[in-house]
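User: Sequence recovery, please. Input:
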């Protein structure tokens, strides 16, 4: 199920609502004319979104919730398939700061990511998207008998370049009281074979 409505409000404003129930992400990408992307999204999505658009075309308010059910982010038969058990995203637009606030949780196998993201859209058509993630926790290896590795200090800054199809990780610091890991690098999706280039540094906190 996928439905969308647009209705007029006062002063030239409009309200835009979207409801989806178990729509495959790859079908949404195809409908948005990005279905040829090498990253396959074999996951069902349910979402409820409501936005108010001003008479000048700017977003005044946006609230919503997106739930992703079990599936794969690449071809399920591929050796590099990334499986997801469940993910949930809540969205709220801060019109004063022009920032989309997104608390979210992702569960993938024995790993759990509970984070708080700020997404700043570009001010120009071909501009970069800025993403910052802080707070929350990252728990790795929850299904192991030795117990999970938990990081509770998260600082991530990244930029998304839709035109060049690149994700640039400027800062990726995750730590707990014992150890810290720093990441920088980028992912290039401009070819059929995405290229990854990352630098990793580890430190002991004690």
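Assistant: Recovered sequence (206 residues):
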């Amino acid at each position: 199920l996928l439905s969308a409505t647009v209705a007029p409000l006062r002063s030239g404003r409009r309200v835009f609502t979207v409801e989806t129930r178990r729509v495959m992400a790859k079908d949404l990408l195809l409908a948005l004319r990005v279905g040829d992307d090498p990253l396959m999204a074999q996951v069902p999505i349910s979402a409820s979104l409501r936005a108010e658009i001003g008479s000048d075309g700017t977003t005044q308010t946006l609230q919503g919730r997106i739930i992703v059910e079990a599936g794969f982010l690449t071809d399920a038969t591929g050796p590099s398939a990334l499986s997801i058990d469940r993910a949930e995203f809540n969205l709220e637009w801060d019109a004063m700061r022009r920032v989309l606030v997104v608390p979210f949780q992702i569960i993938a196998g024995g790993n759990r990511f509970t984070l708080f993201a700020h997404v700043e859209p570009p001010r120009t058509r071909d501009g970069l998207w800025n993403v910052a993630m802080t707070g929350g926790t990252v728990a790795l290896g929850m299904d192991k008998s030795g117990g999970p590795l938990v990081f509770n200090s998260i600082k991530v800054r990244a930029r998304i370049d839709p035109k060049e199809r690149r994700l640039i990780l400027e800062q990726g610091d995750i730590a707990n009281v014992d150890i810290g890991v720093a990441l920088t690098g980028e992912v290039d999706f401009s070819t059929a074979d995405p290229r990854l280039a990352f630098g990793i540094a580890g430190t002991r906190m004690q």
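The mean pLDDT is 83.
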